[in-house]
Design brief:
single chain, 993 residues, alpha+beta, Immunoglobulin-like, Zincin-like, Neutral Protease, domain 2, 7 domains, 8-stranded mixed beta sheet, 7-stranded mixed beta sheet, 27 helices
Length: 993
């Protein structure tokens, strides 16, 4: 038989004479519970201190009766509000049912539960569970609990008495509160003391082993904050385990969810945060109408303080700036003074993150001693009073003797954070002193900021603070020694937007993105089914991997499911195999570095399901690994620390007598699986070097092939036919469309090709169809049709930012590219490189006994950016790079830089005519003065038919015929000539070249 627990109210004589204490009304609350029915019954007796009465919010409470001064009053409640008139005592009997489940703040707001709950697991009453008044009051609570239940509420003193129907808990709290809370359950109680403070821990039986640990850490944090701020404001402190996933701090106790308390780091870190709230938020109250400052201050003096003491303060602050940049977009941005409580990642980044940074900057501004003296003053003078940002400012001004209105106005009242740019950093010599000069630019309304600056010189380091407060300022700093590098705000002491070089790719970049896609795999959809549902619920759009376009990648952050997705091959040239457990890795998006690509890899559906919701708690990390839902690895990708600028690059020199001859270089490199020899296409001396290396390898008996950028893949058969003697040289040049597709004089390469032909050395056409690369340069990879896409490599590595920067410089320097799309230009260059790397890889895999010598332009080889690193990604084979001397070679531009003497290249003779490809053939438009055929009889207007026996239809055919002609050769020229009345006639002439 179900028992209904009834609370008998025996306080009538006391209540009839009770009066409010000081300015606060007295609120006596008595409650009882039927946990099987999820039912609460209660009586609230409230002192009405004003003649106008009081407005009382009821929420979902059911009012049973109302009395004012012991006289029944018909409850007149509208919109869940009860209006009572007159002074005296109001008695409200009510009941409520809290048992239809509960709602949480979602994955973006963990620790917030938006409903109360009463049941066999326990009782959690945190909001609108009793008639609520809009002002602070002095609360006394009596709670009759079922057998076996222990209750906790705000209290300095707790008394427990046994009754026939259960245990009655009386909570006495002599300080004003805005509201009161109650938690209860079948707890194991642990207790200790520190400096006269009773310390308690209430844990369920399954977690009883945590009780002593939490008591020890509670003592540690009470000792810390009593030393930093002031004596603990209450007589007791309790850590209470909740069956709901809460994370709350109330005066004299904290209510932590079961899953939370089990995490190993909670007692060591988060508990300190909640204990610090006992001073700021739970005794110095927040004036929420003017903004919540307590979360930022508490985060700064707990989470940040702990990391700072371990030497990680800089990284903690950098994480704050990263979270703000990733989560707080324009539509979610608001001033700190409007922060009340966290509701999502963006509000947390403002209230907790920016708030903590404001207190850090304030401490840097006024100094540690003033900062902590002001906090002690606040803890003492504002105790049990609602306190605003203005109240804080007044105390800091009092302690520092400074006017801080400007500081608080720009950081508290103004939304956003500054964007600081450094322009034209350089070293100039002023009056004989090396001086670092640069401009600081703030494009929006300028902030007043103090920036730390460090200059490294050849004699040591110079550290300095600079103050800026204008839109553009020129800074000049003299130094002792030659300045080499400058770093600004290396420790992240200022709330500012970081540069791309400083910003790491992290999970918050995915979660905070406005436009974000889940890339669904064609296979293993079942493995990620729940994963997809969770992220769809958080606002992610869904797209099959086969439907992803470059435009999708550029405009979105992507969550790619599975390490073998074609999207990853397309972007990073990678194709992985599933690993153990579950992992998530975040990389910068190669097509838009302001966005990210996240790669998820689950060994099974169970591993994916166990990890998916936990990901949202790890926003600051670049890589995660879980096993059965337990985190076993996490890391943040290293990026620049501070704004860094190289001021004086190192100058290197070469001592010619110690230079190496090419023969010695060949002896050092001849065993390398891949040898790259760069060229300046029109420089004959570069091709002579290539030939010398090829001949040297052959002399050493090496078995190798020559890969050539100059020929495109579809013409490989023509190359093979020529090397085999099946076609002649002219047919070879025509079949490969050499002059149409490469255009440089064939004589530059002829010796190399003839040597390969004579020595049976394979030549591999490395390059992509020019039609495809040109189309990509114009329209991007998305512009290719289905058949064209089949011609391009499956995998492409687009993530080399240094190469992209180099190509950007090239793009900007070419006038003919002005008005073109850089992204398309970049994609076409990558396609060029990847095709050559993939073609070489295909050959080497089919011919594992051969080396390869790759002949390509310097831009495809230097630094390894173009072909070398891409082929290495595919086959892992060692390589060496040789390039001719550049105007300003970098130290790592190549393994060997060569210095050939300039050579005059053999050049093909010219006919000396201007030709035009017309419908009827090649028309002679002009005979150039001094032409070799001027006196042969050929005239302007003739249509050229053949040269000797070589039929000519295109200008390239003429080039093919002429490339090996020599002075004094006699040639036959056959033309069609139009007669006045009789049409075209065939005519033949001879000419001596």
């Amino acid at each position: 038989m179900k028992k209904y627990i009834i609370l008998f109210l025996i306080l009538l004589s006391f209540l009839s004479t009770a009066e409010a204490v000081g300015p606060y009304p007295l609120y006596n609350l008595s409650v009882s519970f039927d946990v099987e029915k999820n039912l609460l019954k209660g009586t609230a007796v409230i002192t009405l201190t004003e003649e106008r009465g009081m407005t009382i919010a009821l929420g979902d409470l059911k009012v049973l009766s109302v009395k004012v001064n012991n006289q029944p009053v018909a409850p007149d409640s509208k919109n869940h509000v009860l209006e009572l008139k007159g002074k005296g005592l109001a008695e409200i009997n009510y009941e409520a049912t809290f048992g239809d489940g509960y709602e949480t703040g979602g994955l973006e707001n963990t620790g917030v539960v938006t409903k109360n709950f009463i049941g066999g697991k326990g009782i959690s009453l945190t909001r609108m569970w009793h008639p609520s008044i809009a002002e602070m009051a002095l609360y006394n609570l009596k709670a009759l609990m079922p057998q076996g239940f222990t209750a906790v509420s705000e209290a300095d003193d707790v008394t427990v008495s046994e009754t026939a129907t259960g245990r009655e808990f009386s909570f006495s709290f002599p300080n004003p509160l805005n509201e009161i809370t109650l938690a209860a359950g079948k707890y194991n109680e642990f207790k200790d003391s520190f400096n006269g403070i009773g310390i308690y821990a209430y844990f369920f039986s399954e977690d009883a082993g945590l009780g002593t640990k939490y008591l020890e850490y509670a003592k540690k944090y009470l000792q810390l904050y009593e030393g930093l701020i002031a004596p603990y404001p209450y007589k007791r402190f309790s850590v209470v385990e909740n069956f709901l996933p809460t994370g709350y701090s109330m005066p004299s106790f904290t209510l932590l969810g079961q899953d939370v308390v089990r995490l190993p780091f909670i007692a060591e870190t988060a508990l300190g945060h909640e204990i610090l709230h006992q001073w700021f938020g739970n005794s110095v109250y927040v004036d929420f109408k003017k903004g919540n400052w307590s979360e930022g201050l508490t985060a700064y003096l707990s989470d940040h303080l702990y990391e700072d003491r371990k030497g990680n303060g800089r990284q903690y602050r950098k994480n704050i700036l990263t979270d703000y940049a990733n989560y707080v977009h324009a539509e979610k941005e608001f001033p700190l003074k409007y922060f009340i409580s966290r509701t999502d990642f963006a509000s947390k980044a403002i209230g907790y993150g920016k708030g903590a940074m404001v207190f850090h900057m304030l401490k840097k501004l006024v100094g540690d001693e003033v900062f902590f003296n002001a906090l002690k003053g606040i803890a003492k003078e504002r105790q049990f009073q609602e306190t605003s940002w203005d109240d804080l400012r007044s105390m800091f001004e009092k302690e520092s003797g400074r006017n801080l209105e400007g500081f608080f106005t720009q950081w508290v009242n103004r939304k956003g954070m500054p964007l600081i740019e450094i322009d034209d950093p350089k070293v100039i010599v002023l009056k004989g002193i090396p001086t670092v000069s640069f401009q600081v630019i703030q494009k929006d309304e300028p902030y007043a900021l103090d920036l730390s600056l460090s200059i490294t010189t050849d004699k040591g380091a110079l550290n300095k603070n600079i103050h800026i407060d204008k839109g553009k300022e020129t800074i000049e700093i003299p130094s002792d020694g030659n300045p080499l590098e400058m770093v600004i705000d290396a420790d992240y002491d200022v709330m500012r937007r970081m540069s791309q070089e400083e910003s790491p790719p992290v999970i918050s970049g995915l979660l905070g993105e406005n436009k974000r896609l889940i890339v669904i795999p064609e296979e293993k959809k079942d493995t990620y089914a729940s994963f997809i549902d969770v992220f769809k619920g958080e606002g992610f759009a869904v797209k099959d991997e086969s439907d992803i376009t470059d435009e999708d990648i550029k405009s979105s952050s992507l969550l790619v499911l599975g390490p073998d997705s074609p999207v990853l091959k397309r972007l990073f040239g990678m194709s992985g195999k599933p690993g153990q457990g579950f992992s998530l890795e975040v990389r910068k998006n190669p097509l838009n570095i302001s966005r990210v690509i996240a790669i998820a890899d689950a060994a099974s559906k169970d591993e994916a399901d166990a990890a998916v919701r936990k990901i949202f708690h790890y926003g600051k990390y670049s890589a995660l690994r879980f096993e059965k839902g337990r985190n076993v690895g996490k890391s943040i990708k290293e990026t620049e620390q501070g704004m860094r600028f190289v001021l004086n690059g190192s100058v290197t020199g070469i001592q010619p007598k110690k230079a190496m001859h090419l023969d010695e270089i060949i002896s050092r490199i001849y065993r390398k699986p891949v040898i790259y020899i760069g060229e300046r296409h029109g420089n004959y001396e570069d091709h002579k070097i290539q030939l010398k290396v090829i001949m040297g390898l052959h002399e050493k008996g090496r078995k190798f092939a020559v890969g050539m950028e100059m020929f495109q893949r579809p013409f490989q058969k023509a190359i093979n036919d020529y090397l085999a003697g099946a076609i002649n040289e002219k047919q070879f040049l025509k079949s490969t469309e050499y002059f149409k597709r490469w255009q440089f004089d064939y004589n530059l390469y002829r010796e190399i090709i003839e040597f390969a032909k004579a020595k049976n050395i394979p030549i591999v056409a490395l390059n992509q169809w020019s039609e495809i690369t040109k189309k990509v340069a114009k329209e991007g990879l998305d512009g290719l049709d289905f058949l064209e896409k089949r011609e391009i490599p499956e995998g492409m590595d687009m993530a080399d930012e240094e190469y992209k920067s180099l190509l950007s410089s090239v793009f900007k320097s070419h006038r003919q590219l002005q008005g073109a799309n850089f992204d398309h230009f970049y994609e076409s260059q990558l396609l060029w490189d990847e095709t050559m790397a993939n073609t070489a890889d295909e050959f080497l895999k089919k011919n594992p006994d051969r080396q390869m010598v790759v002949l390509a332009g310097v831009g495809h080889i230097m630094h390894g950016y173009g072909i070398p690193k891409r082929l290495f990604r595919l086959n892992g084979k060692d390589f060496v790079t040789l390039i001719p001397s550049m105007a300003t070679p970098d130290e790592d531009i190549a393994d060997y830089v060569l210095f050939p003497e300039p050579l005059q290249a053999p050049s093909a003779l010219k006919l000396g005519v201007v030709l035009k490809e017309a419908e009827g053939g090649l028309r002679i438009e002009e005979i150039i003065p001094g032409s070799r055929i001027k006196n042969s009889g050929v005239k302007k207007g003739d249509v050229l038919f053949s040269l000797d026996d070589w039929k000519v239809e295109t200008i390239d055919d003429v080039k093919i015929f002429m490339f090996d002609r020599k002075e004094g050769d006699t040639i036959k020229i056959k033309v069609y000539r139009k007669k006045l009345l009789s049409g075209y006639h065939t005519m033949e002439f001879t000419a001596t070249l």
